[in-house]
Amino acid sequence: MIKICGLTRRVDAETAARHGATAIGFNFWPKSPRFVVPEMAAEIVKGLSEDITTVGVFVDEAPDVMRSVADRVGLGAIQLHGGEPADYGEALGRPVLKAFGVGSLEQMRAWPSETLILLDAVDSPARGGTGMRVDWTQAARVARERRVVLAGGLTPDNVAEAIATVRPFGVDVASGVERSPGIKDEDKVRRFVTEARDAFARLGRDRT
């Protein structure tokens, strides 16, 4: 998974898809600087290739609200960034990414094995997208036990090293490819996706 998160514009979704991202994310938490309403997200994803997974980011929202937004937008997955309990996954009817800090392994173990673990920098006020870097050594330990999507401080310049060190299932970036919150930089998106794809290809050859 190569995910470009915090989209607020159609042009940035098209850019991400054109350069080979496999997932895009929309932040439905009102306090986020990248907040979008469901109607805007639905317009952005309209006509995009079905090969790209659309992900909705929520913080401590009720399951019925998340299901409603997911249906209106056409989300393929839901990402949880609050203190949601482990049984939320069953109530959502879609694949789930659950965000944790790298030191929360015991809490992660309470979640079903099919839940993707998003490792992000712990920052309660912002709930992600801060550019703060995760400890890759600790992240690598988690990745040996769970399927991990690595976030937190990734950029086109460090994503290849991060993938080689952590060996995650995927990577997720927001601020690292932006000109300002919610406004992506096409060259950074292109470079990030290219570097990530090449690093995952090398990882695959190493595993073989």
**Biggest sheet, strands in spatial order?**
1-2-3-4-5-6-7-8
Shape: globular
Our measurement of the CA-to-CA distance between the termini, rounded to an integer number of angstroms, reads 19 Å
- Estimated share of beta-strand residues: 15-25%
Biggest beta-sheet profile: 8 strands, parallel, barrel
Instruction: Give average pLDDT, whole number.
Output: 92
Outline the low-pLDDT stretches.
none
Helix content: 25-40%
**Class from secondary-structure proportions:** alpha/beta
Number of strands: 10
Query: What is the chain-wise order of helices and strands?
Result: EHEHEHEHEHEHEHEEEH
Report the C-alpha radius of gyration, rounded: 16 Å
Number of helical segments?
8
Question: Can you give a write-up of this model?
Answer:
The chain has 208 residues and is of the alpha/beta class. The protein has eight helices and ten strands. The strands form two sheets. An eight-stranded parallel beta barrel has the order 1-2-3-4-5-6-7-8, surrounded by five helices. The protein has a two-stranded antiparallel sheet with strand order 9-10. The chain is globular.
Throw out a few tags for this protein.
208 residues; alpha/beta; two-stranded antiparallel ribbon; 8 helices; 19% strand
Structural topology:
Layout: E1 2-4, H1 10-18, E2 23-27, H2 38-45, E3 53-58, H3 63-73, E4 77-80, H4 88-92, E5 96-100, H5 105-108, E6 116-119, H6 136-143, E7 148-150, H7 159-166, E8 170-173, E9 178-180, E10 183-184, H8 186-207
Parallel strand pairs: 1-2, 1-8, 2-3, 3-4, 4-5, 5-6, 6-7, 7-8
Antiparallel strand pairs: 9-10
Helix pairs in contact: 2-3, 7-8
